[in-house]
Amino acid sequence: MNTTTCYYCNTQAAEARYAFKKIIYNKLDSNYGLGLTGIKKTTRYYEKEFLIPRCANCAIEHGKPNKPAGIIALVVFAISGSFTYTFAKRWYVAVIAGIICGIVAMSSYFILVYHKRLKTLGIKDANNIKDFSPVKDLLDNGWQTIKP
Ligand SMILES: [Zn+2]
Hints:
By secondary structure, the chain is of the alpha+beta class.
């Protein structure tokens, strides 16, 4: 009964259980009030949830990088952290350096390995939803993919 084509590869039939859930936001207003640490800004916004049609194959590809990216981040964190500690002799400096290096390594992996692989396969990244027509219409009208 469901014959929607997968948004990400545009070839295979999408399956409901593999749909990718994505919420987009539209700012309603901002208010300033007094908080414990000074002036506090609160923003109210609308949100809309979308289920992006996805096939089993794309769902598997989208899930693949999480494990290696996590391992890379951990290994780089441990190496750069202990390397920094031998020089800085302060554990918090080592932790901060480790976290920064871990994030850089993980981002590099996503850009250099994962996104390259998706490109070769002709699959869009899970969060690349700007061409999905119902979402696109809203994004053109001021909606955002991150909380305002
Ligand atoms: Zn697909």
